[in-house]
């Protein structure tokens, strides 16, 4: 099954939205396979967002990501990379549909509370950046036969 990297940014943690956000992924049917709370260094944030290094907001973005605890997670499930981004909503909460995490819970692009990998290669790289292989827990979930209709 596919895996994606999801992080609740410092604003989401400070605003008490951890349970709300986890609940949305959990109820959808995705499986949590890794989780930890960490304060990333600025250098770590720069590595995480290296694709955006030439954007004017890069420095502020990395300061922000490293400004407090981030809840780093790996979620597993069929199509979780793409559909996880759908649950999250578009980058700018002003344009995110109601019903999405950013649409329901955030207001401005610089404080959009959550990150999700944007494709299979990014997901692989981000999981490897944030987690040691031993921190990823592979296990069978009883719900899977009901979620996927296989035995
Ligand atoms: P992530 O899941 O966090 O990677 O967001 P995304 O994939 O929806 O957007 P993208 O990777 O393009 O940008 C990464 C992050 O940079 C966004 O989540 C925003 O927090 C921030 N960002 C993107 N565009 C802008 C912008 O125009 N202004 C500001 N201030 N921040 C931006
Ligand atoms: Mg992105």
TrEMBL record:
EC number(s) reported in the record: 2.7.4.6
Chief place of localization: plastid
Entry GO CC: chloroplast thylakoid lumen
Substrates-to-products reaction catalysed: a ribonucleoside 5'-diphosphate + ATP = a ribonucleoside 5'-triphosphate + ADP; a 2'-deoxyribonucleoside 5'-diphosphate + ATP = a 2'-deoxyribonucleoside 5'-triphosphate + ADP
Cofactor(s), names only, from the UniProt record: Mg(2+)
Keyword tags: ATP-binding, Kinase, Magnesium, Metal-binding, Nucleotide metabolism, Nucleotide-binding, Transferase
Annotated catalytic residues: 115 (pros-phosphohistidine intermediate)
BP terms from Gene Ontology: CTP biosynthetic process; GTP biosynthetic process; UTP biosynthetic process
Name of the top EC class for this enzyme: transferase
Nucleoside diphosphate kinase-like domain: residues covered: 1-138
Subcellular location: Plastid, Chloroplast thylakoid lumen
GO molecular function per UniProt: ATP binding; metal ion binding; nucleoside diphosphate kinase activity
Binding residues for ATP: 9, 57, 85, 91, 102, 112
Described function: Major role in the synthesis of nucleoside triphosphates other than ATP. The ATP gamma phosphate is transferred to the NDP beta phosphate via a ping-pong mechanism, using a phosphorylated active-site intermediate. Shows the highest specificity towards GDP.
Quaternary structure (record): Homohexamer.
Entry similarity comment: Belongs to the NDK family.
Protein name (database record): Nucleoside diphosphate kinase
Species in which this protein is naturally found: Phoenix dactylifera (Date palm)
Name of the gene encoding the protein in the UniProt record: LOC103714193
Span covered, complete protein: 87 to 237 of 237
